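Input record (one chain):
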Amino acid sequence: MAAMARDPVLMLTEAGLYCPAGDFHIDPWRPVPRALITHGHADHARPGSRAYLATDGSAPVIRHRLGRIRMETLAYGVPRRIGGAEVSFHPAGHVPGAAQIRVEVAGEVWVVSGDYKLVDDGLSTPWEPVACHTLITECTFGLPVFTWPSQAQVIAEITQWVAEAAAAGRTPVLGVYALGKAQRLIAALAHLAPVLTHGAIEATNRVLRDQGIALPPTQPVTQDLDFAAHRGRLVMAPPSALGTPWLRRFGPVSTGFASGWMRLRGIRRRRGADRGFVISDHADWPGLNAAVRASGAERVLATHGYTEIFARWLGEQGYAAEAIATRFAGEAAEDEAEAEETGA
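The corresponding structure, as predicted from the sequence alone:
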């Protein structure tokens, strides 16, 4: 971290990544005067800052989650001068509106990846490589064990599980994160529409639909729903709801969990779900390596995940690489935020 602090483009402070030339932070961990936000997940978009800048695609969900805030927006690829820095937002492919942030100071270009994936999920604006001298990359799944099956394969597995649960007289309840994963699977499982949705997911659906994102029809779970009549229909809920009394109203259920962490058997067992489906809105090991190569970066700073391991690997590949501290917690933080929002 000491080497990073001497660099003029971005430095690490107690509030997170800071650009001295532009006097702004990127995805700060605590309130700051000006925050540039990569996307709307709770560990990246935090309340309390005086002013925010985000993409026009992520602003609605950030406002939904943070309430009344002072926010400006930028379209992808449009540069803005902030003090002595030029910034622009570029597609990250993580969730709708998610961005990588490019920062240029005196000809030196850094890119902060935020969370990203290289696979086109059919809903988010696909990831694009952004050339830079220094790349700050997440590595949530920065181990070779993390490789993702195709989305088509996972959709086939979920479809079969739903049919098997219905045939056994059970309601299939799938744990998915309310922003991104839920909408991605709702779109990919259009043949099962309308999916029943927990309130946290349906609230996010409304925000995205209001900004013009097309989703198949869904049916929110309400107190007056005839649960017996809907037995066997697919239900989507935040993971935080799976172990709560909310689940009991469906009668006999089969529970599933959709996450990249399902690649690890130990985590699958701890989640206590009947089925695990390996699908993630983060890059897998091949995706991380491909993104680093595509950036053309000479220097790579690994954050948010298996940082030491990934930085060591990159060093062995000839990059100037190191790990830097983070307070981003990925899917776990998103789960906690949903529990707070919904009381689940």
